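Appendix B.2, paired examples.
Example (i):
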Amino acid sequence: MQSNFKTLVKSIAAPLAVGAVSGFLAREGIQNFGAGGRPFLSPPGWMFPIVWMLLYLLSGVGAYRVKTSKADKERVEEAITIYHLLLFVHFLWVIFFFTFEFQIFAFAWLIAVWLLAAVASILFYSIKKPAGVFMLLFLCWTTYAGYLNLASWIIRKSPL
């Protein structure tokens, strides 16, 4: 039981740490998001850290559910490897988009994030359905982030 608790803490701490570090490194860009005009249906700025924290928390719980499942160890390792890659690639997207403001590059990069989130969702779902649903929420928000990313680039490039 104690090793499962350690696994739970590590599983939740890892994505929260990724989010905290990327948020810290990109804090100025995050605060300035939409300064040149916000995309239609853009939420208030205070909502982003709350949503991402919740998604990281849920994805960590999902990773825990996968790690402690009775599924084939190779399938579990594959799912967790894809998940860790997803966290890393998403970390870089935050830096590309908010810190460096490479908006169109960040959008292309976000496609990789989206694909990894889709694969992680499928793998997690095949091992533990609730874990897959948690990752599906991550995928949905990533889709929305893609809209905001592309729309903000269009707004910045618009002559109006």
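Example (ii):
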Amino acid sequence: MNKQMQGTFVPPNHPELHIDYTIIKSNRKSWSLSVSSDGLLTMRIPNAMSRQYAESLIVQKQDWIVKQYIKVKKQQEKRPVSNLSQLQRDALEKRYREAARSYFPERVQYYAGILHVTYGNITIRDQKTRWGSCSSRGNLNFNWRLMLAPPRVLDYVVVHELCHRKHMDHSPAFWQEVGNLLPDYKTLRKWLKDNGNTLIL
């Protein structure tokens, strides 16, 4: 079971900022940092790493964290103000989730046939920091909010995760595999990075 720890990071170089963070321990070999579209800092670390050491790494990476955090906050300011009521948003989300449960399996089946790979279960989620994921067993997770993105961007995420069935990393061989199917994947990847925070109801 993954162990989670929460806290608030005040960057020494930017004491005016208070950045909430979550440290997640799991069975992994390396650590990673990400800042979600709602400004939450997430650090994933191996089980053997102590919280004290993890927090020291956060301080070391404060310049990168602050840059990403400020970028997210600026993007939030550009988000359109929704006039929908909570009831309307809930109803729309339900419809998008239902559409996702139908649409994603179709695209996965299509691209899996081209790549000649197998896959396991397909789950639709509302992940805060990921658009998709692929487990070592081939189980796939996709964020329903991708239904709000251009179809080509959604296909990029599907192809990305299926290529992990051949390469469980982000090596040059992995990106070559992605590029073989989607030569414009860099453009699609950038669109998602720049506009992912706008995929809201």
